[in-house]
């Protein structure tokens, strides 16, 4: 296997992991934002 292929595979793997982590972080942030929104909505409507 030429070195270029190895490097490309490594970069692909790192990029894949980063994409998964970023995706998870993005989902967590979106979930947290939605949760806060629902929370404040309930507080406002229960007043």
Can I get a quick summary?
With 47 residues, the protein is mainly alpha-helical. The chain has one helix at 3-46.
Structural features, described:
The protein is mainly alpha-helical and 47 residues long. Helix content is 94%, strand content 0%.
Shape: rod-shaped
The ordered string of helix (H) and strand (E) elements is: H
Unreliable sequence segments: none
Beta-strand content estimate: under 5%
- Number of alpha- plus pi-helical segments: 1
Number of strands: 0
Span between N and C termini?
A: 67 Å
* Class by SSE composition: mainly alpha
Radius of gyration: 20 Å
Helix coverage percent of residues? over 70%
**Main beta sheet strand tally, sense and closure:** none
SSE layout:
Elements: H1 3-46
Features:
47 residues, mainly alpha, 1 helix, rod-shaped
